[in-house]
Design brief:
Blueprint: H1 3-9, H2 17-25, H3 33-44, E1 59-65, E2 81-92, E3 96-104, E4 117-119, E5 129-130, E6 136-142, H4 146-151, E7 181-187, E8 192-198, E9 207-212, E10 217-222, E11 232-237, E12 244-245, E13 263-266, E14 269-276, E15 284-289, E16 306-307, E17 319-321, E18 336-338, E19 341-348, E20 351-356, E21 378-385, E22 388-395, E23 410-421, E24 424-433, E25 441-448, E26 461-465, E27 470-477, H5 486-504
Antiparallel strand pairs: 1-2, 1-27, 2-3, 2-4, 5-6, 6-7, 7-8, 9-10, 10-11, 11-12, 13-14, 14-15, 15-16, 17-18, 19-20, 20-21, 21-22, 23-24, 24-25, 25-26
Helix pairs in contact: 3-5
Length: 505
């Protein structure tokens, strides 16, 4: 039996918090002797039958491009279709991480399962999430074999033959080979389900994010091609080929749908990030809500997500005038910038961390005398104070940020995940770059949960670099259960070991 599944099948109240702390800090001395014995037993258990095993406390990074050197044939150029690979790392707190193994998602159709590919170099794809029940990973891609697309991209959409994978059409009956946008559902044994291949969404543009509570219902987010009605947030079910819109035609003229980015459920509320100027008068940069409980049909009378109170200016375009603690070393105090939220992480109900790309799509600040197009790339910390969200500070040291007006380098962050342990927030992120094929990295940083002023000395540590011909995209942290009874664990593991010994005999 799989080690992770064993832990999940136990009561949620049986391993002490010190077990979780061990997983994040690799400090065996923090555990009592019985807990160390349990970990030793874990190490001897047989692995499940899937391609690889994803273990609690590890990081999983989604990777477009060639992936592990030598694992794929050939290399890929910007905007081509490429394999979509998951890299697993074991973190030592936020100071280092060791590569464990990798899983390349299927490139061929098999039974009801679709092929799934990524667009190499796309700046907005590849968000990866752990399901609400902790049993699955989810990531979105395109339902086509990479080699098939690259050999004749003109067959897969209405535009010229030199198109990007993201420009492939997803609509049926249009005279081209439609490319569905596919949900990749991966269990902790590495088994992949790609039966949810959806047509008519994110047409000629990027699927960005997918979230599920239990592996049966999916909320998906992405961009269409204006003027059309295929962007925004949708809900669909496992194995379905269609989806129901949530945001609807939420641009100012209601003529077409606006794009959205990262989608998550926290505290039974659906949240989504937005960085868009699609649609005249519809400029928006914020994080908003889409219902509690999460909506299953068009929300808010087609007015799109409801902006979190205080997240940007009252006009809803996501403008913020920076204070000294909010600057990132590139922008300036007292300058008004547009936010550009990508992935986000709720440390608790009143503390929100946001990966900001530093390259806002919204340009509403250009009409203001003190406006700056530089954005506020890095890791922003927001606190809920008297019903409004307040930007406490921005963490950027160690990222080597450059201005978004340049031609090369990192302007901010894309992927983000984290965990809170004893008042410390362990955060992991991937960078956002100016050039589509600029080097990408996995970073770690630890922040004091209680701080509302920028702590001195907090800096990002580079944990890993993407291999040649590869891009790091999203990152997810696999949860570790927190039981409180060593006796239950010891009994379960002893029984499993006995069973394994009998099999060997």
């Amino acid at each position: 039996m799989h080690r992770f599944v064993i832990l999940q099948k136990l009561s949620a109240d049986t391993i002490p918090a010190s077990f979780l702390q061990f997983q994040q800090q690799d400090n065996m001395k923090q555990l009592s002797h019985p807990h160390r014995a349990i970990l030793a037993l874990l190490a001897t258990l047989p692995i499940g039958a899937g391609p690889i095993t994803f273990l609690p406390g590890n990081l999983v990074v989604s990777v477009s491009g060639n992936g592990v050197p030598g694992a794929q044939s050939g290399s890929y150029t910007d905007n081509q279709a490429s394999p979509l690979t998951l890299f697993q790392y074991h973190p030592n707190g936020t100071s280092s991480a060791s590569f464990v193994n990798f899983l390349t998602l299927p490139q061929t159709t098999s039974g009801g399962n679709s092929a799934i590919s990524a667009e190499y170099g796309s700046s907005s794809e590849g968000s990866i999430h752990v399901s609400g029940n902790g049993q699955y990973l989810t990531v979105m891609g395109y339902g086509v074999n990479a080699s098939d697309f690259n050999s004749n991209p003109g067959s897969f959409g209405p535009n010229s033959a030199n198109k990007a994978l993201g420009q492939s059409g997803s609509s049926l009956g249009q005279g081209y080979i439609a490319v569905p946008r596919v949900v990749g559902l991966i269990d902790m044994n590495g088994n992949v389900n790609t039966t949810t291949a959806i047509y008519g969404v994110f047409d000629q543009n990027n699927p960005r994010s997918v979230y599920t509570a239990d592996g049966t219902k999916f909320y998906i987010s992405g961009q269409g091609s204006s003027p059309d009605h295929t962007g925004g947030v949708y809900v669909t079910n496992l194995g379905s080929n269609s989806a129901t819109p949530i945001t609807g035609d939420d641009t100012s003229s209601k003529a077409f749908s606006q794009d959205t980015r990262d989608i998550q459920i926290f505290n039974n509320t659906l949240f989504v990030s937005v960085d868009s100027k699609e649609g005249s008068g519809s400029n928006r940069d914020f994080i908003g809500t889409l219902g509690t409980p999460p909506a299953t049909g068009v929300f808010n009378s087609q007015n799109g997500p409801t902006k979190l109170p205080g997240f940007g200016n009252s006009g809803g375009t996501g403008k913020v005038t920076l204070t000294a603690g909010q600057t990132n070393g590139i922008n300036q105090t007292a300058k008004e910038i547009n936010l550009s939220p990508e992935n986000f992480f709720f440390a608790n109900a009143t503390t929100l961390y946001v990966a900001d790309s530093g390259a806002p799509k919204n340009d509403s600040v250009t009409n203001d005398s003190n406006g700056s197009t530089l954005g506020d790339g890095g890791l922003q910390k927001w606190s809920l104070v008297n019903g409004n969200w307040v930007l406490d500070y921005t963490l950027s040291d160690g990222l080597n940020l450059v201005a978004n007006s340049g031609s090369f380098g990192t302007t901010g962050l894309l992927g983000l995940t984290g965990v809170v342990i004893n008042g410390q927030v362990y955060l992991y992120a991937t960078n956002y770059t100016i050039g589509d094929l600029d080097p990408t990295f996995l970073y770690g940083i630890t922040d004091d949960l209680a701080s509302i002023a920028k702590p001195a000395g907090e800096t990002f540590t580079q944990l890993a670099a993407a291999p040649a011909d590869s891009n790091f995209k999203g990152v997810a942290l696999l949860p570790t259960p927190e039981p409180n009874s060593v006796a239950i664990l010891a009994t379960v593991f002893a029984a499993l070991l006995l069973k394994a010994k009998r099999k060997r005999a």
